[in-house]
Amino acid sequence: MKNKFFSCLFLLPILCSVLAAGENLLPPAPGPLVVWQAPAFMGKDFWVWLNMPERYAAAMQKVLQEPMTQDTVKTYDLGTSLFEREKPLYNRLLIREIALFDGDRNLSSLASVDGWADQAQIKYLERVCDGDPSPQSACFSAPALAGKDQGAWIAFTFAQPQRLDKVIISSGRERVAGSPDYVHLASRFVLQAKINGSWRNVPDTERKGNVHPEISLSFRPLSSDAFRLYVYEQSTPLLVSCQKLLEKDFPKTTPFCIGIRASRPPFNCFEDTLYDSEGYQQWKEQHPNFIGFDAASEWDNEFINFLAFPRDLDKIMTRSGSSNTVKKTIQEKIFQPRDRMSALAGLKTYHQAIVRHFFADTEKLIFMNCLMAFNHYAMEWGGGMISIETTSSGSHRHQPQMMFARGASRQYHKPWSWYIALGFNGRDDNGKLVYTDPVYTGQRSGGPDWGISPSLNMRDRYMAYLSGASHLRSEVWPHAYCQDKDGDGIWELSPHGEVMKEWDDFVRKNPRGHSYAPVALCLPFSHGQSPIMGGKIWGRIDAARSDHQVEACLRTLVPWNAHRGGQEWAYSNNPYGDLYDVILPAPPSGPVSLEILRQYQILFFAGDIDSSPEFAKRLQKYVFQGGTVVFNTQQLNAHFSSDFLGAQLSGRKLTLSSPVKSLLDQTLIPVPQAYSLEELKLTTARPILLDSADKVIACSQDYGKGRVLLTTTDFLMPDDIGRLDLPNHSKWSKGEPKFPLLEYLFGRISSEVLPFSLTGDIQFGVNQMPDGWLIYLINNEGIYKKIKEPQRLDPNKTASVNIQLKKLQTTAIRELRSGEAIPWQQDSNSFTVKVAPGDVRVYRIFCEKDGQ
């Protein structure tokens, strides 16, 4: 019997079961947590986000009468940039005159002139110093290059060293006679001098973004027998303006978003540009219902695959049509980061380029994450909203992504969005890896019953709403959501459309509460993790053991479901609930405030700790006021005193002897693998976990109203955690190894932060309501969906879930999707429900005001 709790915890079903009487892991809560909920926008705290393609208006006339298509956010795609004018199709070197001065003496005619241009010859070089700056007396490269700038140089060689202190450069020509616009301007260049046989840049002569057809460069006198002007780019000055915005008639009564693909190939955000910020501000004031720019869709994918770690940067940039400006910036500041800090710096360069392209209006910028967990970075450096994209198999794109997004939203007090892509990532019947969408209209690639299941679409929608997102966006609209059932050319709702209609009706009828997540998983700012793939940091950099603890925590809280093979897999039933956020509590802007920390009852640190004296003091104050922190001995540093910890490190390394016994509830925890630990000398702390040789595995220290929990095994992981040099290292891709100490701690934490308990093989989450609680139950078992087949449900996988209401003074229970009143057993204050495979049930627990 003494192993009963442990066995249930490992084998499922169990959900935060009532533990044996004894001391709690956590101190008594000092009061209600600080609540953060995204503010309402135009009268609503949650908006559905749909594009309304005008070209399908006739076919959609019936669908557009559905309530789900009314009063939605609309998106308008305005192309690849906000440039008022594009670069010319062809670029070439075009120099009218270069004058080299020593004081007032023009020395140009004393030199012999030479030149070079990429993939071209320079014609009429003698014209560059003939004293005639007119367009008719210009040297130029031929042929010009299509779609990219033409690197080139013009060199002046003297018989004897000459002293120079000024250069005047006349370049480019009018686009048309009398036009203020010039083409082929030397827009990015530097003067160089030959010093000891090598070309060196002359200080104070480098220019980029030049918009002047004649420019004078003055510099400290320099002597050499050879000088050259090296031109990297020749372009019409680019202007980011609101011209495209003024050309579009936007709605006046509903929110709208503008999609601009400047962050995607050819990466126009990196161009040197001018900005009409004043014009934009005037436009924005006239559109108070403007949500923002869809400024960085899948910026994480673009960074990992195209900017930082491409196999052939030049080939990728050339294929995408990127200019020399873009190439040079990426090559110098982003490409092939050496370590996590240089990767972080490269991502910030990318982020700042995006911000600049959108008038530096950070509060109106939306950053979408698809693969990596970059949500906090977007908001730390300036971003008004983050969005996660979810699709189906191959990776966990749902619960872990939600943990990062919701945590970033709460840390920075900014809204977040959920973008549902209906594509299936997986192998077809021929074993080929493909991505395909469900399409019922026949208007684009894909087919009926392709892509993800209607069940997964439904689960995503309820998760987005009940976990606190401010917006929900739908990819493949309307093609996945409409169909022509009778062949009359008028579309009806498809199975995905019916899912959307039912969910939309639920949202309109049922206000949500505060998404209840009282536990924060605290990561270092430079974590570079993918909540989907795990393994390599920043997609390519070898992970340290501390990084793998982050992954171990995520894989424990959301069990890995790779065993499904070619079947759809996304969510996981788990015994811990969707009660955990991810925050980065020590960002470069400084330690997060106590107000933010007080949104959480527990801070559980994973990976290395970004610690400073200020951060350590902030944590001590948090604990003193009633919070709980969970540290590992590998995370400690000199900023955490023994008075705070209640223990001292001995410096001795020991080996754990299985099983581990909990002194809180007498649970025995078998630990079959080898674990190393740090020996502790307890001063005022008391042990809570001991191994069979009475070595301390965890201890507890009261500090003010709060508590410090300290664990001793090396990052709470076994010594052998598999191949660490693989993108998804060998054991972990199969759901191994298990982490029994993490499982026990998370199970105990979840049981203590909830006012009720649940048993059953199920996923669950909670909203706190003004007069009670809302509990959602999701059964992720028994759904079978292949890439091009309809979903099948196995009724034998129906979950039976018992909810024990403990001390809640319940007055009524209602299942909100069906409207059904739920009876409960008064004597045990509990009720039992069934949840079908792939289904979602939402239970509203009404309580007496003082009995929550």
Characterization of the model:
This protein is α+β, with helices and mostly antiparallel strands and 852 residues long. 19% of the residues lie in helices and 30% in strands. Strands 4, 5, 6, 7, 8, 10, 13, 14, 15 and 16 form a ten-stranded antiparallel sheet that branches. A nine-stranded mixed sheet has the order 31-30-32-33-40-39-38-35-36, with helices on both faces. An eight-stranded parallel sheet has the order 1-26-23-22-21-20-18-2. The protein starts with a helix and ends in a 5-residue tail after the last strand.
Specify the number of helices. 16
Sheet having the most strands: 10 strands, antiparallel
* Number of extended strands: 50
User: Over the alpha carbons, how many angstroms does the gyration radius reach?
Assistant: 31 Å
Note the gap between the termini.
33 Å
Q: Determine the mean pLDDT.
A: 91
The shape is globular
Please state the structural category.
alpha+beta
Low-confidence stretches: 1-21
Helix content: 10-25%
Question: In a few lines, what is going on in this structure?
Answer:
The chain is 19% helix and 30% strand.
Keywords:
852 residues; alpha+beta; ten-stranded antiparallel sheet; 16 helices; 30% strand; globular
What topology does this entry show?
Layout: H1 4-11, E1 47-49, E2 74-77, E3 90-91, E4 94-102, E5 105-106, E6 112-117, E7 121-123, E8 139-142, E9 145-146, E10 152-171, E11 173-174, E12 182-183, E13 186-195, E14 198-201, E15 207-208, E16 214-234, E17 238-240, H2 243-246, E18 256-259, E19 273-275, H3 277-285, E20 290-296, H4 299-308, H5 313-319, H6 324-333, H7 340-357, E21 365-369, H8 375-380, E22 385-390, H9 399-412, E23 416-420, E24 424-427, E25 433-436, H10 454-466, E26 471-474, E27 482-483, E28 492-493, H11 495-509, E29 514-515, E30 519-522, H12 545-557, E31 580-583, H13 594-597, E32 602-605, H14 613-624, E33 628-632, H15 642-645, E34 647-655, E35 660-662, E36 668-669, E37 676-682, E38 686-691, E39 696-703, E40 706-711, H16 740-753, E41 757-759, E42 763-769, E43 772-778, E44 783-784, E45 792-793, E46 799-804, E47 810-815, E48 820-821, E49 830-835, E50 840-847
Parallel strand pairs: 1-26, 2-18, 17-19, 18-20, 20-21, 21-22, 22-23, 23-26, 30-31, 30-32, 32-33, 33-40
Antiparallel strand pairs: 3-9, 4-5, 4-8, 4-10, 6-10, 7-8, 10-16, 11-12, 13-14, 13-15, 13-16, 24-25, 27-28, 29-42, 34-37, 35-36, 35-38, 38-39, 39-40, 41-46, 42-43, 43-50, 44-45, 46-49, 47-48, 47-50
